[in-house]
Protein: ABC transporter ATP-binding protein
Organism: Amycolatopsis taiwanensis
Amino acid sequence: MPRFPFPRTRRTRLLTLAAVVVILAAVGLVWVRSAGGDGPPVRTQDAMIDVPAAPGSAEQVRLDTTMYFPERTPAPAILLAHGFGADKTSVTGEAQELAREGFVVLTYSARGFGHSAGQISLNDPDFEVADSSRLLDYLATRPEVQQDGPNDPHVGVTGVSYGGALTLMLAGQDRRVDAIAPVITYNDLAQSLIPNGVFKRSWAALLFSSGATGGAGGGGTGAEAPEPGQATTDSATALSSGAGSAAAASAPQSPPAAPGNGASCGRFTARICQAYTELATTGVASPATLDLLHRVSPDSVTANIKVPTLLVQGENDTLFGLDQAEANARQITAAGGQVQQIWYAGGHDGGKPGPQLRAKIHDWLRFQLTGEGTNPVSGFPYDVQGTLRASGAPSVRIVEAASDVSQDQTVALAGPEQTIVNPPGGVPAAVSGIPGLNGLSGSSRATGLFGVDPPGQSARFTSAPLASQLLVAGAPTIRLRVSGTAGEAVLFVKLYDVSPDGTASLPANQVMPIRVALPADGSPVEVPVTLAGIVRPIESGHLVRIVVGTTDQSFTTPVAPASYRVSLDGGVTVPTVPGHAVGAGWPTNNLLAIAGVVAAALVIALIAALRRRRAHHADPELAEVPLVINGLTKAYPGGLTAVKQLSFRVERGQVLGLLGPNGAGKTTTLRMLMGLITPSAGEIRVFGHRITAGAPVLSRIGSFVEGSGFLPHLSGATNLQLYWAATGRPVESAHVTEALEIAGLGDAVHRKVRTYSQGMRQRLAIAQAMLGLPELLVLDEPTNGLDPPQIHQMREVLQRYAATGRTVLVSSHLLAEVEQTCTHVVVMHRGALVAAGEVGDIAAAGGEATFRVDRPAAAADALRGFDGVSHVDVEGNLVHADLDGLPRAEAVAALVHAGVAVEQAGPRRRLEDAFLRLVGEDG
């Protein structure tokens, strides 16, 4: 996740707080106005209903419920389930609508949410599904509800997402259900969260956190759900006693479960928490986890569903895609059930159904439960989102087909076999979207606000311009050929709509991951791939592009570096569903979600703008100064301060050595200089610009600080070329030839990096830092792994580089090399500055003197005769001595008096002595 900067000054904090208050007030107004609905108040009754805590258990769990009554009773009933992370208050508006339309409506907070007790089991048949069956028992006791027989209420069930899955699970387990309308939900939770064996970590983390933060203790509210348009409330509902098992007080919540590693699970059961912990830490589901996900998925019961079913699915949904609705439809139809589908331009990334589509769903439920009138849903209607209107809003039309049976059309694609790499650590990763914010880009014909495919990580196959519009409605398919040296490949496949000006749009931010087992001998394997389902009109003159990548930030990707060869067998087959336009598309009820996203965006933009204004303000007096560090401090939690009030300045043409023992704060300082970590106090300015993460002035710095991160399967030359391509700067400004000459690798530069010695890697890393011939070159321990001749060559390279008017900053522990290479030195100890200046001046401050004499032995004896003089050494005709404060003139006079001819006398310039004096022998 990105780290959002927070304003530090009182003024900017007040401005930000004011913006947040105004925005939250607006969001609250949107929610109040959208939830209340239109029309007279509806009579309600609250009740706490007891359900068994577990099968066969005498212990009870209490569910918080509200019943809504129509004007006339008895009437058919609707059990209305809420979305994940919310509670019964999130469906208040729809419950009132249904009651005004003549239904008795029962809403409730599922166990583990809102004021209901218990723990979350993700719609387990023995828990949440059994609870909903008990709610049908309760409806059977109410005189306001029509009855089909003893303990058999006339009832339909509907709900969104988590509530939609509950709808299907209940219909597959309880034959008293008469009709169901699940909305934007799933068929198989394993395929939804681990498609083709690749963990969808971003969405899973959002879902888990919205349940885990619910906490234990009665009376709590559900966490804000990652459902479109969901909300929660803090207001406690006055509970009145109801019929049956209703009671007036809430039972205490069950304590939170915890996985084996002791991490808090919030309201989840230990089994659910352990499954999530396994997926989040390993990215791979064990058989036990797959069995659990199957148990709580509708596909475990769809073979039992015989009642009329209306599946409403969103076309903008990276959590539960169109494939999930198609799977539900296929399985229920095979079991003999009556199924109809509606696809609309919404979903978890685009919003819940708005009033018109909700009215259509309610009319369908009335037709199924009363038999009055005709079926309001004919054929297969789906939304088609068109180009932007002048106002900026996308136009949407409803296309109605006779059925949801598709026709296939193949589009030829061109592109050679291509090599793609998975970088070490899986970073940088491609970005196909951001859960919860995809609607900002996925609903338009724009480029896609979040789309990024790093160079070297993706293969591309593109069609010729289309002769006529191609309306894709469903899941396209392709056949890939993949080979590689790893045992398996994790790849991400996307279909782009490319306009004539080259702008590529990723429809609905959809990406399909695949996991491919590869032969050990490196031979290619053919893989049929079904892409994510989309509805997209690709206009004439546009291109269809298939991109196969190795990473995606929304998924767990392998961290080991690898290289693959990818080609396409044939073109892409796209499904089309012919029909005719019948009206404008269904508007989504996404006001709250939009308001929330806009609120967050405005606050972040305000904070970022204020920070950028301050951070990017250049000091004109320092415009020609390569580096100024002033009062730099970095403190960590726990009391550790790595750098304390560090200040120094570096001028053009200098080679500055940063010295200090281990733990002195050298590397921390360099990391702050590169914008990799944020200082606790103070500032760094490069050519007058303040350094922050991503500051534009960083492009004027070349560095070797964090390690090279070379791709071992590629040559040294290719690594340099890919690195420069990732910067987005022109190829001609890279000066790759000069950098390779500096590296001095000869023909080895064309070998794979995995064959390099440590010294060769080090030289390649320094050449990488010199790409573009940066004005400030920052190197951390550049001579590690180099032999003496290579160190000598490196010394000359750095001195020549600085002689061109550029600046070099070197951190090293080799004092002799710093003394011979650098013009200036900064000495750090325990995070603080202890000395700074020219190398000669610092070395001369060691307190020792050197005398060139004709009789070295006699001179040494004479010097040892003085009190306090120590460490007298003879080196040829040179005598070195620590005079300990004795004036050098007096020492010369004593030597002359002893009959020794003194040819030269002066300070002994040895950096090692000065360093030890500054930091101590134990530094």
Notes: DSSP finds 22 helices and 43 strands in the chain. The first helix runs from residue 10 to 36. Residues 1-36, 214-263, 442-449 have pLDDT under 50 and may be disordered. The chain has five domains: 1-36+590-615, 46-208+222-252+290-377, 407-575, 620-841, 846-917.
